[in-house]
Amino acid sequence: MSSSIGENLRLTIFGQSHSPAVGMTLEGVPAGENLDFDVLAAFLRRRAPGQNAWSTARKEADAPEFLSGLLGNTTCGTPLTAIIRNTDTRSKDYSALKITPRPGHADFTAEVKYHGFQDFAGGGHFSGRLTAPLCIAGGICLQILKREGITVISRIAAIGDIQDEGELLSSTAGKNFPTVSDVQGEKMRALIAEARAEEDSVGGVVECAVLGLPAGLGDPMFDGMENRIAAIVFGIPAVKGLEFGAGFASATLRGSENNDAFALRDGKIVTETNRCGGILGGITNGMPLVFRAAFKPTPSIAQSQRTVNLQTMEEENLNIVGRHDPCIVPRAVPVVESAAAIAVYDALLGRRKEER
Amino acid sequence: MSSSIGENLRLTIFGQSHSPAVGMTLEGVPAGENLDFDVLAAFLRRRAPGQNAWSTARKEADAPEFLSGLLGNTTCGTPLTAIIRNTDTRSKDYSALKITPRPGHADFTAEVKYHGFQDFAGGGHFSGRLTAPLCIAGGICLQILKREGITVISRIAAIGDIQDEGELLSSTAGKNFPTVSDVQGEKMRALIAEARAEEDSVGGVVECAVLGLPAGLGDPMFDGMENRIAAIVFGIPAVKGLEFGAGFASATLRGSENNDAFALRDGKIVTETNRCGGILGGITNGMPLVFRAAFKPTPSIAQSQRTVNLQTMEEENLNIVGRHDPCIVPRAVPVVESAAAIAVYDALLGRRKEER
Amino acid sequence: MSSSIGENLRLTIFGQSHSPAVGMTLEGVPAGENLDFDVLAAFLRRRAPGQNAWSTARKEADAPEFLSGLLGNTTCGTPLTAIIRNTDTRSKDYSALKITPRPGHADFTAEVKYHGFQDFAGGGHFSGRLTAPLCIAGGICLQILKREGITVISRIAAIGDIQDEGELLSSTAGKNFPTVSDVQGEKMRALIAEARAEEDSVGGVVECAVLGLPAGLGDPMFDGMENRIAAIVFGIPAVKGLEFGAGFASATLRGSENNDAFALRDGKIVTETNRCGGILGGITNGMPLVFRAAFKPTPSIAQSQRTVNLQTMEEENLNIVGRHDPCIVPRAVPVVESAAAIAVYDALLGRRKEER
Amino acid sequence: MSSSIGENLRLTIFGQSHSPAVGMTLEGVPAGENLDFDVLAAFLRRRAPGQNAWSTARKEADAPEFLSGLLGNTTCGTPLTAIIRNTDTRSKDYSALKITPRPGHADFTAEVKYHGFQDFAGGGHFSGRLTAPLCIAGGICLQILKREGITVISRIAAIGDIQDEGELLSSTAGKNFPTVSDVQGEKMRALIAEARAEEDSVGGVVECAVLGLPAGLGDPMFDGMENRIAAIVFGIPAVKGLEFGAGFASATLRGSENNDAFALRDGKIVTETNRCGGILGGITNGMPLVFRAAFKPTPSIAQSQRTVNLQTMEEENLNIVGRHDPCIVPRAVPVVESAAAIAVYDALLGRRKEER
Q1: Chain B: residue whose CA lies nearest to C221
Q2: Cα–Cα 20 to 30 A to B275, which of A107, A156, B215, D249?
Q3: Contact at 8 Å (CB) between D233 and D227?
Q4: Of B20, B76, B80, Cβ closest to residue D117
C-alpha cells in the first residue's frame, strides 16, 4: 500500500493538504518507550513553514495530537496515531489546478490516476504538508535510537551549484542553516534570495549520516539498508536522486581506489576509508552510514509557464499565485533525517529476530 | 522479507553462489500469458558470464528449468518457479573468505549478521549469481509488457570517467556493447582492458528507459515509481546511486529550467522536456521513464589489499586469486532492465484495481 | 502488523478503550466512490452500546469524524482515516486490572506481552470498543459492494443452547434482534435476561451470508475466501470458532452427502445444495458465501471469580464492578458483517488484476 | 499473495499436482539452526500416500531436495528452498476435468478464475499434493521449536460421527493411527473401510495442541494466535471449520462456566481449566494451545454424480475413475501440526522484537 512502509515498524501516513487533518500511525514500537514531547516539538519546528526568510509565509502550529498508543508519555505497545489539524483550509479556489496542471507538480498525473476525483486543493496528497507526519514518526524513532547510542545528523550539501565544504560533523547538525562552512552557507542563502527575487526557485542536496550503528543491520537483496532508505527517501516530494557513500563518484573510480581496506582501531574492526557509506552487501559494517538525496527546485514559481488546459485542450500560459518556498531544501533536512531514522529503527527491530 | 519484493507481483529469489541451485518464484502473473522460452534464453545470455573479453571466464549454461506455474508455455495463474543449477561448485576452498574478509565485499558484514553460519563460498547469497533469477523474472515481465506496448531499453552511460554521447535510442539497446556512440564504446572497452591488465577493476553507469508507458501508473508516497524501482535496483549488487530524469543535475537548476512545460502533440498531452524522467508525484505522465544506476567497480581485484584476520585479529595482506569481471557494468545492463520491467509490471497490475 | 489487515484493501485500526480516540485507516479504496454518511451512521448504531435491554448502559455517540481520503462525500483515492472520540474516559480507577487479571480477559496476557506497560484502562487495545472502527471500514465496504450487487446479511443463529430455526433471509437482517424465528428470538432474549439476573453472561453464534457474489473471487492456498474471512473474524474479541457452509457438520457426512452437485438454472451454473458455503478451493462458486462464528460468553460477570494477585502472588477472589453486556452477540452482528464485507471487497479488488 | 504466508517467517509454496515439482521457500529462519534430515523424512512419511489401507495407492518417495539456505545441515540465514519432484505425471488424460467439473472440487471455480488457462491435471494447484511442501516447512519449524521446549501433538478427534474418547496426550501423537482410545480408533478405521467399500468417502476432525509455549506470544486484533493459525489451516484443502479451546461449545456456556480461573501451581500462574485453548486476547497464556479443524469428506468418490458439461452446457452424470483416499483425515494430521508449528514459530520470532 502506497501510504504505508516498513516491515518490523509499519508507518502509515494519511491526509491531504486541505483535509481536516494529516497524520500518521506507527505500528510495531515496543511497549515501554518513553517519549519526550518537547524534544519532538522542537524537531517538528525544524520542518515547519514560516520560520525564516527562505520558506513560505504560511504559519502552522504543527502540534501533533496523539490519539493512541500511549499510557501517559510511554508507549503501550499498540499503534501510535498522531494527527495535526489543517487550519484555514479551503479558503480559496484551487479548482484551476484541476484544469491547468502546473508543470513539475502532480496535478496532471493525479487527474489521470484518480479519474478526476482527486483532492486538488493545495496539492492534495502530494503536498509537502505530508512530510509533517513523516517527521512525527521520525522524531519518535530518533528518540528511541538515541537511547541505543545511534544518532542521525545531516547538512545542506549543496544549493544549486554551491557546494558545502568540509566534512559533516555532529556540530553542523545543530545549526539553523546546517552547513559545515558558514561561508558557503551564506552563499547558499544569497542564492535562495536571488531565486526568490527572480520569481524562481532552486534545488539542492541533503547529506545525512547515521552514527553509532552496530555492524550487522540490514539484509541482502531487497532489504539492504540502501533499499530500505531509498523506499522512504523517494517518498519525500521533490527527491530525484539518491546515493550512498561515494555514490555516483564511485562509478568513476578503480576498484583499488574505491575498496575500503579493513583495519584495526582500538581492537575494533573499522575501514580506513568509507566509500561504501557504511554498507556492504546491504548490511551495516559499523562505520557511519552516509547518503545524499538530490532535491529538484520547487516547481511552484511565480514566472509564467506553459501548460495545457484540460477542458479546452489548448495550450495556454499559467501564472501561479501565492507564496511558495523558493527552496525546499532547508526544511527538508529533518525530513531526510526522519527517513533515515525510520529505516534504521526498522532494521534494528528486525535484527533482534536473529539474535541467538 | 529481504529476498522478496513487490505488491501485486511478488518475486522471491533464493540460492547461493554454490548451493545446488539459484532460482526465483514469481507470484501474481495472471493466467494465460504465453512465454517464449527462446526469447527468454536470449535475454538471459546477455547477463551470463564468459561471453566476451570483459567478463569472467566462468561459463554457465544458465538455462532455467521451470518447476511450476505453467501449462505448456502458458501461465496457469499459480506461482512460477524456475531454477538454474549451480555446477562445478564447492570445487575449491573458500574458507579464507571467512577469516580474511575481502574489502568491498559482504564477507565481513555477513560474518557479523549470520554469527559465522553464513555460506561464504563464492560470495554466498551476495553473489552476482543471484541476478540470474532476477533476470528470469525480468525476462518474463518484459515479454508481457511488450504485448501491452511497453518496452525497456538501456545503455552503458559511462565506464569510469568515459561518458557515452547522444541520446538513448531503441536501436542502441540491441548492441552487444550498448552505447549510442561507438567511438565512446570503444574507449570504454579499452578502459576495461586497461583495468584488467593492471589487476584492477572499474565502475560505471547504466541508463534505462521505459517506453510506451501509459500515464497514471504508480502511487503517491512510498509506492511512487521511483520508490518501486529503487527498491529493486538497490538489490543489485554494486549499485550505490540512482537518479531519475535529470536527477542530481536537477538539484543545480532553477525551477524555470527544471520544470517540464505541458504541451499538445497530435492531440496528446506531452511535456516539452523530460527532466522529471516521466514521473510526477510518483506517477507516470506518459513520457519515457528514465533512470540511471551507478555501479561501483568490482571489489574483487588481483592487487594485494589490506584486511583484518578475524581469527588472529591482526591486519594482514589479502591476495584474491581467481578470475573476476574487471567491470560488471556490461553484464548488469539486462539486470537493470529486469528491475525496471518488474517494477513497471507490478504497477500496471496495481493500476487495474483502480479502473472503473 | 497486528493492527492491519488486507492486501488490496488495507485496514489499520488504532486506539484503546480510554485513549483520546479510536479510529481506522483504509487504504486502497479507489477514487470516485460516493459515501452516504447517514447510511453509515445507521449501520454503526447497530453496534453501539446502550441501545436496548441486552447491552451495556454506556451510551456513546459513535459518530465518526473523517480526517482524510474524501473530497466532499466522495473518495479521492488516498487513505481514508476516520476517528471516534472516546469521551468520559479515565474517570475511574482501573489499576486493579493490572494486579488482579480478570479470568477470560486479556489482562494477564497483556501484562506479560507488554512487560507491564500496557494500557489497562477499560481493556485497552483488547476492548470491544475497537470493533467500532472495524464497523466504519465495514460500513464503507458494504456501500461499495451494494453498488456491485453484493449484499451481506446475517442473523443470530444461537444464544446459549437456543438455536434459531429456518433459513437466513434478507428480510431477517433488517430486524432489531435478527432471528428468522421470532419465537426462538424471544427465547434467546429471555435467556440473556436470565443470565443478567444471575450476574452471569451467555455466548452464541452469528451466521452470515454474502449474496450476489460472482464466481471466481478468492485464491488458492492462503488467500482463499475462508482464510481471508478467518483472518478478520478471529480479530473480533470473543470469537473462538468459525465454520463455512456445513462446517463441522460436514466432517460427519459421507462424500456422497456432502458434495454439492452442479446443475443449470436459467442457463446459469449453480449447485443444488450449498454445503461448501459457496467456496470451492478457496474461490467463490457464485452461490451464497455462508459462515458462522462462535462467540464465547462475555468474560466480565458480576459473580465472584478466582484469580491471582500479581503483586502478592497469592490467589484471591475478584469481584468485577460496573455494568457489562450479559451477551455480546446481538451487538456483534454488524461487526461480523463488516468482517465479511472487508474480506470480500479486498478479493473483488484483487480479482480485477486477473481480468484480461 | 495467495501462496505466501507469514510475517517474521515467510512461507511460499509452489507447484501443481503434475508440474515438474512442488516445493517451498521459507524465509526468515535465522542462521545456525541445525536440521536433522532423517527426522524430517520420518515426519514427511506420515503425510505420504500409499502407507496403509486408508490412503490412495499412489506411492511417492516425497524426498525433498534442498536447493538453498543451508551450509551442510545448518541454516545459513538465506531463504530455504526445497522441492519434491513429481514423477509419473501427465500419464493420463485429465482434460475431462476441464469440461465436466467434479462436485466438491475446485475444477469449476478454477475454470472461472483462470479463464480456462488453469492446470487441471490432478487438481493442479488445489491438489492435496501441495501439503507436502507445507510439511517440509512444518517439519523444519517443529525441529527448531523442540529446541525451545515447544512440542506439537495431535490426534484424530473424529471420523464421521465416531468421536475419540479421552484427553489428547503426547503418547497419542506417536501412534500410527493417532487416537487416544484404541477402541474408537478401530471403529474409525472400520468406518473408513466401509466408506471405501461403498465407493464413498468420509470426513473427520483433527485436534492439535502446542505444549511448552511461553505466555506472551501473539498479538491483538489481526495477528492473534487464532488468526495466525486460521490463516494457514484454512489453506489446507478440505478444511471447513476451526475452533479454539471449547470453540463452538463455548457459545452454549455461561460466562461463569466458560471463564478459566487463574491459579498458582508451583509458583507459576496457570488456569484451572483451559476452555480458552491457551489464548486470551490473541496472546498465549502459557497453557496448551488447543484447536480442532474439521475436514469435509474427500470429494472424489467412485459413485456417479451430477455435474454440468461446460461445453454443451447440459447436465450429465460424472463417474470419477482412479483410486482416491476414502478419508483424508489420517494423512492430514501432520499437515495440521505443520500449520501450528509455522504459526507458532512466526509468533516466537516476532516476540523477540519486543524483548527489552
Answers
A1: B78
A2: A156
A3: no
A4: B76
| Distance in Å, alpha carbon of D228 to nearest chain C alpha carbon | 7
Nearest to A280 by CA among B109, B126, B129: B109
Query: A74-75 and A10-14: which strand pairing?
Result: unpaired
Q: Which of D352, D355, D356 best probes binding to A when mutated, by most A CB atoms within 10 angstroms? A: D352
From C2, C241, C276, residue closest to D222, measured CB to CB: C2
CB contact under 8 A, A352 and D353: yes
Query: In this predicted structure, which of B16-25, B266-275, C319-328, D197-206 has the lowest mean pLDDT?
Result: C319-328
What is the residue-wise DSSP string for C57-125? S-------EEEESEETTEE-SSPEEEEEE--STT-S--THHHHSPPTTSSHHHHHHHTTT-S--GGGGG
**Minimal Cβ distance to C1: which of A28, A75, A115:** A28
Neighbours of chain B (3+ CB pairs under 8 A): A, C, D
* Predicted confidence (pLDDT) per residue in A297-343, tens digit: 999 999 999 999 999 999 999 998 877 889 999 999 999 999 999 99
Closest approach of C244 to chain D, Cα-based (Å): 5
**Which chain C residues contact residue A27 at CB under 8 A?**
1-4, 12
The total number of structural domains in chain D stands at 1
Confirm if B321 and B297 have CB atoms less than 8 A apart.
Answer: no
* Helix (H) or strand (E) segment spanning residue D64: none
CA distance A26 to chain C (A): 10
Distance, in Å, from the CA atom of B268 to the CA atom of B288, rounded to the nearest integer, reads 14
Beta carbons of A296 and B231 less than 8 Å apart: no
CB-CB contact of B256 with A299 (8 Å): no
Q: Answer whether residue C98 shows pLDDT above 90.
A: no
The string of DSSP letters for A55-109 reads S-S-------EEEESEETTEE-SSPEEEEEE--STT-S--THHHHSPPTTSSHHH
Give B167-188 as a DSSP string: ---HHHHTSSS--S-HHHHHHH
Q: Does D352 contact A350 at a Cβ distance shorter than 8 Å?
A: no
Nearest to C150 by CA among C354, C342, C350: C342
The pLDDT assigned to C1 comes to: 82
Contacts with C223 from chain B: Cβ below 8 Å? none
Q: Which residues lie below 8 Å from residue C344, measured CB to CB, with a gap of 6+?
A: C141, C145, C150, C152, C210, C213, C217, C225, C289
Q: DSSP letter string over D202-222?
A: B-EEEEEEEESPPTT-S-SGG
CATH number, position C263: 3.60.150.10
Is the whole model's pTM more than 0.80, yes or no?
yes
B12 contacts in chain D (CB < 8 Å): 4, 12, 25, 27, 79
Q: Chain B to chain D, count of Cβ pairs less than 8 Å apart?
A: 155
- In whole angstroms, what is the distance from residue A252 CA to residue C302 CA? 76
CA geometry: angle C270, C272, C275, nearest 5 deg: 100
- Residue in D2, D79, D113 closest to B14 by CB: D79
Inter-residue contact A173 to A336 (CB < 8 Å) = no
Interval B160-209: pLDDT, tens: 999 999 999 888 877 989 999 999 999 999 999 999 999 999 999 999 99
C-alpha cell recorded at residue D138: 512444518
- Residue that is written with C-alpha cell 538489490 in the block: B235
User: Which residues on C lie below 8 Å from A71 (Cβ)?
Assistant: 117-119
What residues pair up with D264 in beta bridges, in sequence order? Answer: D269
The torsion defined by the Cα of B268, B270, B272 and B276, in degrees rounded to 10, comes to 180
Domain that holds residue A223: 4-355
| Cβ-based contacts of B77 with chain C (< 8 Å) | 354
Please count the residues of chain C.
Answer: 356
